[in-house]
Amino acid sequence: MAVNQVINFVSQIGPIIAMEARKRGYKICSTVIAQAIIESRYGESQLASKYHNYFGIKCGKQWIASGKPSVNLKTKEEYKPGTLTTITDYFRVYPNMTAGVSGYYDFIATKRYANLKTAINYTQYAEFLKADGYATSSTYVKTLCDTVAKYGLTAYDMSVNPVMPAITVHDSDYTDRDRKSVV
């Protein structure tokens, strides 16, 4: 992943996440940006680049029954620590990045994720996500927190008027371990 691609992705999605979070009463944006980075492989996965689903959000029965757009793709889940299982599932489809981010906040606007609004820092937000069942990865919290720290994403937290902070990355920062495999 080229440094410019990372900077461009965060520069595009970061302000959208920050504005949507503030509008809906969330204080922590950094963890959400980290989710987008991880779940979409910096916006490069097919699910993100073609279908604007940057968070790996699957469809529920209500979504499909209502006729909303979806796509059937393979993904990997970790039901047992250390063992990845390939499955095929339906994922939500959005028309653009803004709708994809809004769709994330619609998804977490349920009672199940109500604690996310009370998170006081990015670590707590990540812990709440995992405890609430957002992801199956046994290393999800660590991966999110490492991503926030690596790119200085806390610059997006607690800001009334989100600004596009400068992020510094180096090619040596990347490993295949940083990427989640959503086709």
Characteristic key phrases:
single chain; alpha+beta; two-stranded antiparallel sheet; 7 helices; disordered C terminus
Can you give a write-up of this model?
With 183 residues, the protein is an alpha+beta fold. It has helices at residues 3-24, 30-40, 46-49, 61-65, 97-107, 122-131, 140-151, and strands spanning 70-80, 83-92. It has a two-stranded antiparallel ribbon. The longest helix has 22 residues, at 3-24. Mean pLDDT is 86; it is low at 170-183.
Helix content: 40-55%
Give the integer mean of the pLDDT values. 86
Residue stretches low in confidence (pLDDT < 50, at least 5 long) are 170-183
* Radius of gyration over C-alpha positions, nearest whole angstrom: 15 Å
> What is the spatial order of strands in the main beta sheet?
1-2
Task: Indicate the multimeric state.
Answer: single chain
- Give the number of helices: 7
Total number of β-strand segments? 2
Beta-strand percentage range: 5-15%
Q: Which shape, going by the Cα principal axes?
A: globular
| Class derived from helix and strand content | alpha+beta
What secondary-structure arrangement, pairings included, does this model have?
Elements: H1 3-24, H2 30-40, H3 46-49, H4 61-65, E1 70-80, E2 83-92, H5 97-107, H6 122-131, H7 140-151
Antiparallel strand pairs: 1-2
